[in-house]
Amino acid sequence: MIVDFQNDFTPGGALAVPEGDAIAAPLARLLDRFDLVVATRDWHPPDHGSFDGVKLAPGEWRGRGPAATWPVHCVQDTPGAELHPALDRAKVDVIVDKGADASEPGYSAFDGTGLAELLRHRGVDRLFVAGLATDYCVRQTVLDALDVGFAVVVVEDAIRGVDVEPGDSAGAIAEMRTAGAVFVRSDELT
Ligand SMILES: [Zn+2]
C-alpha cells in the first residue's frame, strides 16, 4: 500500500513533505514483488475543513485535532492531487481516494473507503505500507489496519514525515510499533 504519494506532498507541492520524492526509488524496487498494489490519494473538496481559511459551522468539524490547519492541498481533479510521476501507474492495481468528506481530516485509508472489505475480498491478510506522511496519513492508516486485524509491515526507508514539531515522525513510528507494526528496510525485502 502506497499512501498519498502525490504531487502536493512532494517537493514543489502545496504541502511538501521533506524528501517526499525520495520514496520513489525503494518503491520502484519493491512494486513487482507484490500481488496487489494499492495507492491511496488524499482527495479533498475545495472547501475541505482542514484547509487554512475555510470556515466551518460550529460543531461541524469531526477531526480530533483542530480544523483549518493545513494549506490547501490535494484538491480533487487538480494536478496537485495526482499521483507522483515517479510512481509507475501501470503497477498500481487499485486507487483508493480518501478525505472527500469536508468535515473530517481523512488521514486514514480505511475511513469510509471500503478498503478493509476490498482487501479481505482479495485474500489479503498482511499489508506492506509505504508513503507520506509518516506522522499523519501513514500513521493513521497503519493504526487502523492493525485495529481491523491486518498484519502490518512498514517499509521504513519508503516513508517520510512532516515533523511540524520535531520528533513527530519518531513518535508516530514508536506508536505504530507499540500497536504491532513491524518495520523493515526495502533492501531486506528484495
Ligand atoms: Zn489532506
Polypeptide structure, described:
It is a single chain. With 190 residues, the protein is an alpha/beta fold. Helices cover 21% and strands 17% of the residues. The chain has four helices and six strands. The protein has helices at 24-30, 115-121, 134-147, 168-179; strands at 2-3, 38-42, 94-98, 126-132, 151-160, 182-184. The protein has a six-stranded parallel beta sheet with strand order 3-2-1-4-5-6, with helices on both faces. Helix 3 (134-147) links the parallel strand 4 and strand 5 (151-160). The model has no long low-confidence stretch (mean pLDDT 96). Zinc ion (ZN) binds next to loops.
Would you kindly provide a brief summary of this structure?
This protein is α/β, with parallel strands linked by helices.
Strand and helix map with partners:
Layout: E1 2-3, H1 24-30, E2 38-42, E3 94-98, H2 115-121, E4 126-132, H3 134-147, E5 151-160, H4 168-179, E6 182-184
Helix pairs in contact: 3-4
Residues 42, 44, 50, 73-74, 99, 106 line the site of zinc ion.
- Dominant shape: globular
Structural class: alpha/beta
Q: Give the names of the bound compounds.
A: zinc ion
Write down the overall mean pLDDT: 96
Distance between the termini: 16 Å
Residue windows where pLDDT falls under 50 for at least 5 positions: none
- Percent in strands: 15-25%
Helical proportion, percent range: 10-25%
Q: SSE order, as H and E?
A: EHEEHEHEHE
Beta strands, count? 6
The Rg value, from CA coordinates, equals: 16 Å
